[in-house]
């Protein structure tokens, strides 16, 4: 049973993400570690040049699924505060699409929880990414973690 | 004299996302479907009404009231106004 009580901060936003905003949210005097994952946008796929990415979400369900992931994390690891922010709409190359920050008394729990959070997000949270290429075409991506991908 | 009973139907709100939204040309629609159904039958009813989805129908899952429905033949009960979402392969993160 975890001895620290913490908060879950979930946000879907079209604003640029700031890692400092998330680390500030999860910082706590009772946590000795803050573990962070940042997902950024790459400029190439399959030899094609990606101009930008567009993200779409089933927002109500995405928030529900993210809260479930927070609950699963709290059952398995001793963490304090969890923040998951995902950007929606247009995300220019090299900007962040997702940031996950987790504070924990000890680093092992936080690092393991962050890995679980991004792996599970990619498998279950109803958010979609479309890549727009230099040559003009576009393609909806499919996570390999998603069990109903092509 | 025999009496013919129509299977009870309900109106549900169907939401389309990503590729399914592009193929259908709309983000949402209402659809009359049997109240007692299965995931397989519900998806078939949606594809029947929106045949442009057929090209991706093997890789769609459904959610009802924001909970995933396991693909298959388990019995599912729908209520008027239920929210049914058509969910192509996801790519968050």
Folded structure, characterized:
The complex is a heterodimer of chains A (150) and B (93). Chain A is of the alpha+beta class and 150 residues long. Chain A has helices at residues 19-26, 59-76, 107-124, and strands at 8-13, 33-40, 44-45, 48-57, 82-87, 89-92, 96-104, 127-133, 138-140. Chain A has a single domain (8-141), classed as Alpha-Beta Complex (Aldehyde Oxidoreductase, domain 3). Chain A is 29% helix and 37% strand. In chain A, strands 3, 4, 6, 8 and 9 form a 5-stranded antiparallel sheet that branches. A 4-stranded mixed sheet of chain A has the order 1-5-7-2, with helices on both faces. In chain A, α2 (59-76) packs antiparallel against α3 (107-124). The longest helix of chain A has 18 residues, at 59-76. Chain A starts with 7 loop residues before the first strand and ends in a 10-residue tail after the last strand. The model of chain A has no long low-confidence stretch (mean pLDDT 95). Chain B is of the alpha+beta class and 93 residues long. Chain B has a 5-stranded mixed sheet. In chain B, strands 3-6 form a two-stranded antiparallel ribbon. The radius of gyration of chain B is 14 Å and the shape is globular. In chain B, 30% of the residues are buried. Classes of the chains: A alpha+beta (150), B alpha+beta (93).
């Amino acid at each position: 049973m975890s001895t620290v009580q913490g908060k879950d901060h979930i946000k879907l936003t079209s604003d640029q993400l700031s890692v400092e905003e998330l680390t500030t949210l999860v910082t706590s005097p009772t946590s000795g570690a803050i573990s962070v994952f940042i997902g950024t946008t790459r400029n190439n796929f399959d030899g094609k040049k990606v101009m930008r990415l567009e993200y779409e979400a089933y927002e109500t369900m995405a928030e529900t699924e993210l809260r479930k992931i927070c609950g699963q994390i709290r059952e398995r690891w001793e963490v304090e505060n969890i923040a998951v922010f995902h950007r929606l709409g247009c995300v220019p190359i090299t900007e962040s699409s997702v940031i996950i920050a987790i504070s924990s008394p000890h680093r092992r729990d936080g690092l393991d929880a962050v890995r679980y959070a991004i792996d599970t997000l990619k498998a279950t949270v109803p958010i979609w990414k479309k890549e727009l290429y230099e040559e003009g075409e576009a393609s909806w991506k499919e996570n390999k973690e998603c069990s109903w991908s092509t | 004299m025999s009496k013919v009973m129509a299977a009870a139907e309900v109106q549900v709100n169907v939401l389309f996302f990503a590729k399914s939204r592009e193929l259908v040309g709309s983000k949402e629609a209402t659809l009359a479907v049997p109240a007692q159904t299965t995931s397989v039958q519900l998806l078939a009813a949606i594809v029947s009404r929106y045949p442009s989805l057929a090209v991706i129908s093997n890789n769609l899952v459904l959610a009802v009231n924001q909970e995933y429905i396991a693909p298959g033949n388990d019995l599912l009960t729908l209520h008027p106004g239920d929210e049914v979402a058509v969910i192509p392969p996801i790519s968050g993160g």
